[in-house]
Fold each of these.
Amino acid sequence: MRRSHISNLLEINLAMLFIGTSGALGRYVDLPVPVTIASRGILAFFVLVLFCKWKGISLRIKPVHRGTVLLSAILMGLHWVTYFYALQWSSVAIGMLSLFTYPVLTAFLEPLLLKTKLQRIHLLLGAMVLVGIYLLSPDLNFQDSNTLAIAIGVFSALCYALRNLVLKSKVTEYHGSALMVYQAGIIGCLLLPAFFYTDFELVLNQWQGLVALAVITTAIGHTLFLMTFKHFSITTVSILSSIQPVYGILIGAIFLNEIPELTTVVGGMLILGSVVIESFRSSKKQHLIPQD
């Protein structure tokens, strides 16, 4: 029996809800960020390997593509680390909304890296994002933690956009879950030395949050997200996924009592509005790249 359209919509919203837990969990886990990300990478690696084995997804990477996968993993690691610093320095709302500048950053980077034509509408969208960022922290004082969080959040978005473009331009024949296996594993290995500077008992005391981050956010959330591409076009998924920061902010409000200010809400609406406009405009099919 064919699934109904409502069931498919519920599935993608469930995926966004699970992925949106990254904000609250990033604030909840009380560990140094490199330790948190190393734990997330290692745990997610094992869960994703089991998933790929269960589904019969090949994990073989051609030698010519291994350098590209390594570079993408380094960019993904920078994205995860800086995103979690943004969460620790500010709030779930500011951290997640800063990250969601990545679609417009991608629109500006793509002509530079993939030699496509820059479109004038992207200048307008870029202006919307800049105004939105300004409203997130109208003081723009770099001695203020919120301003620093926005700056590093936008850098995290830049790393994520570059990672997606690197994979899009070089690697097109691999399953998204297989790529995530290598990225999670490489990130975990690169950050493994962070455990040498942390009391392992503290890590064990945070096991619930770490497991939730690795399993709910990374493994289950992204697996559900991958499955939605069977039912929607890439453009439609991009539009629907802009609900993710809304879920993340609601989770932060419920479990962490973080209520965003009015200026943050307005700034977020401008940022997410630019994402929706760009998603509507985009009709070109592109290879599936899993996100944060």
Amino acid sequence: MVPVVRSLLETDLYKFTMWQALLHGHPNSHSEYEFVCRNAPSFPLAELVDEVNAQLDHLCLLSFNDDELAYLRSLRFMKSDFVDFLAVFRFQRKFIHARAEGGTLAITAAGPQVHVMGFEIFVLYIVNELYFRRFDQAAALAEGRERLLDKVAALKAFGMRPAPRHPFEFSDFGLRRRFSSAWHDEVVLRLTAEVPQYFKGTSNVYLAKRLGNVPIGTMAHEYMQSFQAFGVRLRDFQKAALEDWVQEYRGDLGIALTDVVGMDAFLADFDLYFAKLFDGLRHDSGDPKAWGEKALAHYAALRVDANTKRLVFSDGLDLETAFGLYRHFADRIMTGFGIGTNLTNDVGLTPLNIVMKLVRCNGQSVAKLSDSPGKTMCKDETFLAYLRQVFQHPAA
């Protein structure tokens, strides 16, 4: 077996930041996660089940080494007691199960949240790499290099145009759906070397450490969703999550995720207090221009200078889409772009659209009411209907 996972550090930064906040604020919570493939693969993913289980066995043997822990301690928002926790942490195999259900690959993780939340990113890139190992590697990499060459050329050409008020900046968000670790390395190395004026970092903490890049990330949906089950009034879960984040990070990691129950419901909770404390907002579903205009209108209504804030776009982006959004907004607010699959799995093959999402916390259902059709994930229709009613979110 050729291991897919090289290091426990090779996960997205926001896993560590959410992990720390939940360890400090809710160390006893219990959670359940489920793997889902949203598109049709070229062969049944159930064929991978034995290989996936072998890779999970390997993952659960790994621990953080002293050099990796020292790197995490060097990040000013990582606290000493959390890194001490990671020093003795190992994934527990009993908390995760992969099995074949017909042609479907079913993967579930359930247990104490601080012991199972970390599985997500590893599971996703394990499945991806095992899947794409079955295709012609040489042909895919040749095509990927041609496309990467075109991307670099497009970035250099874009830089010759008149600059708006704020610069164009993008980062790699492609760990979870990458073609392979070797290709991910090659992409990030090339972008770091050739377009450092635009390429500002990677969500992959392992690569950031290796290459001297900035690790990028703040929070994901699971952090906000967890607060639906943390004993606060459901109507107040977003405000409780944002407040806990502010108290944990005291001004660091100030980009808030907006689409757990839709942008309108988020802005209703994102009052002047939060608008001043957070550096900006992240888009992950719905029409990005409409979302950005709502954000700008909200800042204007609060009399907050939007030029001191940032909009981060991260929903299925490619460079051309990012360029268009940049031209639309960059004279009015700072922007940032997290590009994932189109950087790390643009090799001429159809990428998998896979996720591993939080579905229950502390014995009750949690959900995301996405602004994009197909992204809502919750099996409990009663809870979903109640959540829609509480936040006046239209049915998809």
Amino acid sequence: MPRRLPPLNALPSFEAAARHLSFSRAADELNVTHGAISRAIKHLEEQLDVQLFERGTRSVRLTAIGDPYAQSVREALDLLAAATKSASARHSDKTLNVSTSDGFAGRWLVPRLYRFHQANRDIDVRISTTGRLTTFLADGIDIAIRYGGGEYPGLTSELLTGEEVFPVCSPRLLEGAYPLREPGDLKYHTLIHDGFPIDWATWLRSADVSDVDPKSGLTFDSATFAVESAVQGEGVVLGRTMLVAADLAAGRLVRPFRQALTSASQYFVVYPPRAIHQRKVKAFRDWLLAEISHS
């Protein structure tokens, strides 16, 4: 019996709009116009003779029919993408594509990656640090390390570690004319910023310091560069546990004060559920968890 199939070219538009609950964001992801997304979904609804979205003035939401249908379509597209990837000669089972932030890659992952390579010489690792939240199969990403709340619909998310935030600096700043001995001494030193949500204003307030300008100093859009600036003695940065652990252990950085704030976000290893059946993905996931437990 012939299969009854929907208009297949409309499904990616529907799945993206359902995932984002936004026609505009779906259009951006698929590199088409808002109108193209709207027409594709309207055509799909006409063919199915059902309403998939409730459309508001500035928002859309899935109907009671659209919600489970979106989940089924997402699973079907994932299966199709996985089958296509498997059949494609361009994608080798020996190449592992990892997505993460530049800070985590530069300050934690890359210095340890040689150990994974030593244990898995048949797997070539490619690191992506674009800063954009990967859509995995569409981006050719196998596994990701994400920093957030851990809720990623349709994906497996496993906690790696939590994180504290605290000032760190070069040991040289503990000496000289204005040595760092208490939080108030920060007024004599350069603050280094990297755009992290817990900023200097938040930390200074928690330390009851009011005579330091929390916006002054050096600003980087990369945590890697911000930490390296502190290593070079250019100022004090708010260090994050995972990003400064190696520098603290090696003595390149020190904690001048014990005050720390706990971040609401945590690190997670994230991947599509079926990906764990690939040896390269499981090997990297297991290695990550082992490395974290020994950190």
Amino acid sequence: MSTETLDADSSKSAVENAHGVTLSEGAREKVRSLLAQEGRDDLRLRIAVQPGGCSGLIYQLFFDERELEDDAVVNFDGVEVVVDGMSVPYLSGASIDFEDSIQKQGFTIDNPNAAGSCACGDSFS
């Protein structure tokens, strides 16, 4: 399977077919800010699901320059979000936001596929 890159401004069904993850405007701005600090224009935000955590699966968010064969890529106004083929079923329908408040600072993931999560919110099943 080849890498599929779609523009988030394309039809909604096309974006959902890519990986089904949405990125809020606040998260887009934070990613742009972090990329500017890195000083590199070849990085993408990669979101993956890995075994681990107290509930069985854990989210991984990191900048990556690689593009793998089974990656699904969606461009959100200049911010490319990459999900590997094995993580797509776990993340389809998930929305990513960035929270910056007195209580919490960081990326949050609202995932309708998560049956349960641990108290820390970093792990799910």
